[in-house]
Amino acid sequence: MLHPAQPFIRASVGLSLLLLLVTGATSNADEPAPMTISAESRELFEKQIQPLLVKTCGECHGKIPKDNDLDLTSFGSARAIIAKTKTLTNIAERVRGGDMPPKDAPQPSEAEREQLLGWITAALDAEAA
User: Fold this and answer.
1) In whole angstroms, what is the distance from residue 22 CA to residue 3 CA?
2) In degrees, to the nearest 5, what angle opens at C-alpha 13 toward C-alphas 8 and 19?
3) Is the dihedral of CA 95, 100, 103, 107 positive or negative?
4) DSSP string of 54-117?
5) Among 13, 22, 75, 121, which residue carries the largest CB count within 10 Å?
6) Distance in angstroms (rounded) separating the CA atoms of residues 73 and 80
7) Tell me: the pLDDT tens digits for 105-115?
8) Is residue 121 exposed (0-12), middle (13-18) or buried (19+ Cβ within 10 Å)?
């Protein structure tokens, strides 16, 4: 003999499972498509951009940032830093405007500065496309 509440419990469990399946499928559809980063861009980041960020920015924006909360040395891949478009945009604006690195800090060469800004611009353009 069925308990009077059993049909209700079965219906509730069934409805819960259905909702779980539907919302799970919907949440995946809302996720952004994975970024496509060229092998050339990844290699340039790993071999030149990341070491440049560590060398010229790491003293103030490293593992223990000084008077700020931005660690530019922790981005282990191009994908990780490109995912932070607001941070990249801010970096480009500050470097381009001469605010960063500060005048009393070690400066990148003009070629390094151009390379960094070129890579950021290309990365942001690719992300926006």
Assistant:
1) 30
2) 125
3) negative
4) HHHHTTTSSSS-SSS---TT---SHHHHHT-HHHHHHHHHHHHTT-SS-TTS----HHHHHHHH
5) 75
6) 11
7) 889 999 999 99
8) middle
Structure tokens at 36: 């496509």
Please provide residue 100's backbone torsions phi and psi, each rounded to the nearest 5 degrees: -130, 145
The first and second tokens of residue 26, run together, are 């919907």
pTM: 0.69
CB 118 within 8 A of CB 124: no
Residue the block writes with tokens 């496309």: 129
Residue at 31: amino acid letter = E
- Which residue is it, tokens 């060229």? 38
Q: What is the rounded radius of gyration, in angstroms, for the C-alpha atoms of the chain?
A: 24
DSSP state of 1: -
| Residue located via tokens 């924006």 | 61
The one-letter amino acid at 109 = S
Encoding tokens for residue 59?
Answer: 């003293």
For residue 47, the tally of other CB atoms under 10 A from its CB is 10
